[in-house]
Every structure is written in C-alpha cells, then in structure tokens.
Amino acid sequence: MTTFVARRFVDRGLLVGLSANPDGTLHHPSQVDRVCRREDLAGLVSAGTPLGPE
What we know:
Layout: H1 3-11, H2 29-36, H3 41-47
C-alpha cells in the first residue's frame, strides 16, 4: 500500500493516522492488516485514486 492510498484511507476513516509527518504515514499494524484483508480492497483503492488530470 502506498502512502497516497494510506492517506486516502485515513481521510475516509478506514485507518487512524498516528504521525504528524507530512512525508510519511504511521498506522497501527492491526488496523492495516484488517483493511488489507477486506474483500473489497481493490474497489476501496481505486475509488480514492485519481486516474488523470481531471
């Protein structure tokens, strides 16, 4: 999972951000594990990822 995706998940309430560092992310490992095990993970990632300049 990229930092971009992790930040989108924080914005959507799927993860809690534990870091104030704008250049990285820090999340509780069990939260990340729980999100990564979701069957709809691909849809969650693509829903928050821009595909072009629009």
